Amino acid sequence: MHLSPLAQRLLDLINGTANDPTYWPDVSQLSTGLGASVRAGDGGSISEQYVVDGQRLAVAARELVGFLMPDGKRPYEPFSVLVAAGLAGMGAEVSARLTEERGPIAVAEMEVLLGWDVERRALVAEAMRERSDHAAPLPGVIEWLSGQPGYLDFARTALEAAEARVAAIHAGEIPYRAEKAFEDGEKAILGRAVRLALFRDEPWLPELLDRLLRGIAVAPTQAKTLPSQGLLFEIARAVQAYPTPEAISALRAARQATRHAGVPKQLDRMFKRIEAALANRLEVAFRIPDGRVRQAVGEHTAVISTDGKVELSWWHGDKKLKAVPAAVRREHPDEVKRLRELAKQTAQQQATLSRALEAGCAGETAPPYRQLEGHPVTDRLIWEFEVSPGVWRSELGLTVPDVPVRLWHPARASLEEVRAWREVVQGKELRQPYKQAFREVYLLTPAEEETRDHSRRFSDHLLRYGQAKALLTDRGWTGMTLGHWDWSGGSAECTAAKKLPGGLTVTWDFHLDEGSAERDNVGPVSICVSGDIRFLAGISPVPLAEIPPLVLSEALRDADLAVGVTSTGLDPNGHGDYWQSYSFGDLAESAQVRRDALSRLIGRTAIADRCTMTDRFLVVRGDLRTYKIHLGSANILMEPNDAYLCIVSARDPHAGLFLPFEEDGRLALILSKAFLLANDTAITDPSITRQIRA
Fold first, then answer.
1. Average pLDDT, the chain
2. Mean pLDDT computed over 279-308
3. Which of 46, 108, 140, 277 is the most exposed place for a label (fewest CB within 10 A)?
4. Widest CA span in the chain
5. Is residue 555 within 8 Å of residue 535, measured between CB atoms?
6. Nearest to residue 189, comparing CAs of 83, 120, 102?
7. Average pLDDT of the residues in 552-578
8. Alpha carbon of 247 to those of 162, 239, 273, 395: distances in Å?
9. Distance from C-alpha of 504 to C-alpha of 639, rounded to nearest angstrom
């Protein structure tokens, strides 16, 4: 069937193939493409509106309905059909036809949409159309749907109907067919319904979603199939988009219940992304349970503790045992397995909570920290309470009720207060969930005042590309993609970006050096070069002096962490000008904080009388030589001639010594090397002794 030119134009606009959706969701392509532009004034404001002449389009719309709903065939593009039906005045006929040919969940959604005007239908058709691989989905679709009449009520009704259908399958009222519980269209509809409920954090969703997920994860028989693997993964994708602790728990319960061998593996991969997304959804993240468990297993007790590192321990009365009791292993193997899995989940939850706490410390407004009251993690954090307007008082623990509260940050504190809190954390041996008391602060430098709108503080570093990309991605940066496939087309350059509070974006440039292709043999990129850091409001550069100090500090901290963990200057077997300058050069802020921590720790060790601290080095006096351990790279020079000493790793003789933080492993490494070299006559490794005695 060939359409008339007007009907074809109408189809192209409804399907979104005519123009870019520039104005969505304010106005549809249908209106901008076929409507008449009018100027509407309201008081002092004037806006442009579009009016579609329905009478002029009615004939073409009826033609289009016939094209989209051919006799004897199931209609395709149902949203487009509803738009055309509205223009043609054929709502009743189309409704009757779709009711006969589509399932009850799809029909219920259709009835909601038929109650909307043509413009709303056109907007939803534009939003729901299949997009090309290179086109990003329209932003804000779920948020937009949440404000449309009747759709939230439909979402709940649809999910209740889905749960009732699954319950009927398990009760034997509906014959079981693997993967046939829901049609593809229904899976998409239910996915939208879950996304909407999660976005709004609806209180009715957790119990309903838990029942639905458990039902679709396992067959009513002993088969290893599922009623709907497709819906299970569609819901998992919805949870990734709008995670809540309760939805994640429901997904984990479904993962435990399923008998299908491949489903848990796929869900485990998705959980990594879901947990990361939850850490950034601060309005719900602090509902994560504290994870503590105390459970009798036979004559013994299993305890999962979350004070510091998550640990599963076994007790007999008041005595802590070194391992799982033999009787428990023999008589309760399934319970041991379940508790070990629960301990792993708890560790992941606590890691997510730590990331959420860290993400919230630099925000414009404080997240709902009061949700954490009673959680043991609060006792290891420093909080600030607004005890009177504009007056904040810092306390250890969430101890002051009924006043505004925020996490303490050293950027808002005096040097004396920072030193005092570091003494408290060190003295009480508090394992903070993230680096708080010893957190770095990055103030604007004279060089940055000179460059005004960009920072070169972390430029020209040679970084291990894969490791740097993974670290920055984990911290919310996007766009870091480099390769050798098209240098002339820009594959050797990229700009990583991260969204910041206050509508700001920070960007960081990277590129490949001239020797990269030869070094990598045109394979995967091994090393990249860091460039300038900029801050943007929209697409406009913002002077560094206008960035809120705390926001600036946290953004630069990401860069320092990336350099401090992935720089090739850390390689103990390195060489070259960059390696020399990084290995033994000036200290970045992270290394300066490490210096402060070491100065507090060394005095408590058995090697205190053999150690002194300089501006860049921990100097260790051995019996054979004196050694200078760089506080940034942990690389070593030997006096009197500054000969380089290569030690790839060292033993851990400082075990039991409390370390106030250990974000990158460098603090422990420096201490290990210090203990080793202080007793250099006891070193037996010939690869080390040869260098010392040379």
1. 89
2. 91
3. 46
4. 99
5. yes
6. 102
7. 92
8. 17, 7, 14, 33
9. 48
